[in-house]
Write a structure and sequence with these properties.
Number of strands: 11
Radius of gyration: 19 Å
Helix content: 10-25%
Keywords: Cytoplasm, Methyltransferase, rRNA processing, S-adenosyl-L-methionine, Transferase
Largest sheet: 7 strands, mixed
Distance between the termini: 26 Å
Protein name: 16S rRNA (uracil(1498)-N(3))-methyltransferase
Oligomer: single chain
GO molecular function: rRNA (uridine-N3-)-methyltransferase activity
EC number: 2.1.1.193
Catalytic activity: uridine(1498) in 16S rRNA + S-adenosyl-L-methionine = N(3)-methyluridine(1498) in 16S rRNA + S-adenosyl-L-homocysteine + H(+)
Length: about 210
Amino acid sequence: MQVRVRSISLAFLLNRTCSKESTFRAISSSPSPSNYSTQARGGLPRFYSEILPSSKGSVVRVKGDEFWHMTRVLRLTIHDRVELFNGKGNLVEGCIQDIDQSGLNFVALENPKLVSPLETQWHVFAAFGTLKGGRADWLVEKCTELGAHSITPLLTERSSSLSENRVERLLRVSFAASKQCQRLHEMSFNPPIKVAQLLPHRQCRFLVP
């Protein structure tokens, strides 16, 4: 059985439902030093954006579903400070400049900074058979929280099909987990492959439960 699913990035997933100008998701982090007052004890709200402001003073437009989430759910307003990250380690602090009926403008209060991944002796590449129900969601969530570099669904003789909608759901699960653990680097989601295609990686060491 063959299932054709192309590699899907987080940005591709979010662009299916949001404007191409900018897409965001909420996350919280520790506040950074600034002359602006901290909005909450937990730190600044953080949002995902495929495109970040290029420098201090640059403006990014927020529209669509996440505009609604920021203003109606989190009830953010003008001059509220927030952070934007792009899932690749880049982070910028800024504030809401103005709001209208169709969106809001975010202005950078500092130049974007790059946060490098923590150095580690091991890079974990997780692979799993296509699971039914919520078991796959749980596995993807834990792999994200534990810092796996990538995850690969395995196709077996009796494995269930993995549709593009299912892949998108697992990507959303991974992103939600990233928000919970404040992960700045997104976990890659590889296309499904057969076990025989995985085994030739001789430099890999396999951990089997």
